[in-house]
Amino acid sequence: MEYRKLNSAGLSIPVLSFGTATFGGGNDFFKSWGNTDVKEATRLVDLCLEHGINFFDTANVYSKGLSEEILGAAIKGKRNKILLSTKSTFPMGDGPNDYSSSRHAIMKACDESLRRLGTDHIDLYYMHGFDALTPVEETLRALDDLITAGKISYIGCSNFSGWHLMKSLSASEKYGFSKYVTNQAYYSLAGREFEWELMPLGLDQKVSTIVWSPLAGGALSGKITRKNPPTPGTRAAAMDFVISSKDERLYNIVDVLYQVAEEVGKTVAQVALNWVLQRATVTSIVIGARNEKQLIENFGAVGWKLSADHIKKLDTVSATKPIYPFWHQKQFPMLGHI
Q1: What is the largest CA-CA distance in the chain?
Q2: Could you say which of 62, 180, 186, 187 is catalytic?
Q3: For residue range 101-110, what is the model confidence (pLDDT) as tens digits?
């Protein structure tokens, strides 16, 4: 397994990390992703470790804490072998303080995650989304205190806009707080908006990217084609907001993925994952699996690289016209391009 170092930190992580949103199936949305129980989760964790994947990702909001509980049970006795990441910000209850990135909410959420995971520290702790109602200085000071207390080691953000992240980085620099070293963001052949602003920001500020849903919610798994659209109730159907299954662009991308996959002797999913791994700022991609077969297939995305010609084919078919001001900026060479 290939490991890459975070761009502005000393920690090395595997290029594949295992996402556990499929653990639990605590509501209708997450049931469509999966309902992995402790026994199944333990087997998947062991398979990951056998293949050199020691980084496991979850969030408190996944099945309202059930994913964390199942992951905690699955890693029991193995904590010294693994890296753990989890997240907070989104609602965990109906009370006015049961969500947000306030000091009160962060301290409470972190302690509850530690309890559910059965550990005394979290290696990477994310703000799952940007809280525009809480000063970034309050959020960052709270996170800095958790690092000082030894409850978390590094901090990251997820689903931030470019200015959200840049404002936070500036506040960390101004006040000497720990800074976000990773940005967990959606990025795939089907969704390349990440390249417009967040990727250049990551390059400039040395923020590593950990990609969620690199297969566009299963749309690029090879199971979805023009003749085989998503089945109602499946994860691909539930994730239709990522890219619509009625979008002709999706099927054009899938057509080229099949062509490339045949030429390189890999599966469609492996090609789609390998493409993401070769993009700027990407340190790791979060893979998920309902079963051993899916997980083992994902392992085949590493240990090889797409050729420049294959990347060009995939870049061309998946190209998206940028929105303003990015289409305007692309006309001027002094701004630089990725």
Answers
A1: 56
A2: 62
A3: 999 999 999 9
Relative to beta strand 12-14, strand 3-5 is antiparallel
pLDDT number for residue 290: 79
pLDDT at site 178: 97
Task: Specify whether the CB–CB gap between 74 and 104 falls below 8 A.
Answer: no
Over range 1-24, report the average pLDDT. Answer: 94
Residue ranges and CATH numbers for the domains of the chain are 3-218+276-304 (3.20.20.100)
Please say whether the beta carbons of 161 and 130 come within 8 A.
Answer: yes
pLDDT value, residue 337: 59
Distance from CA of residue 126 to its chain's centroid? Answer: 11
When computed from its CA atoms, the radius of gyration of the chain, rounded to whole angstroms, is: 19
Q: From 125, 134, 283, 112, select the one nearest 209 (Cα to Cα).
A: 283
Q: What is the pLDDT of residues 115-166, one digit of tens each?
A: 999 999 999 999 999 999 999 999 999 999 999 999 999 999 999 999 999 9
Would residue 62 show up in a list of annotated catalytic residues for this protein?
Answer: yes
What's the average model confidence in pLDDT over 308-336? 90
Pair 63, 24: CB distance under 8 Å: yes
pLDDT (average), residues 77-86: 96
pLDDT at 187: 97
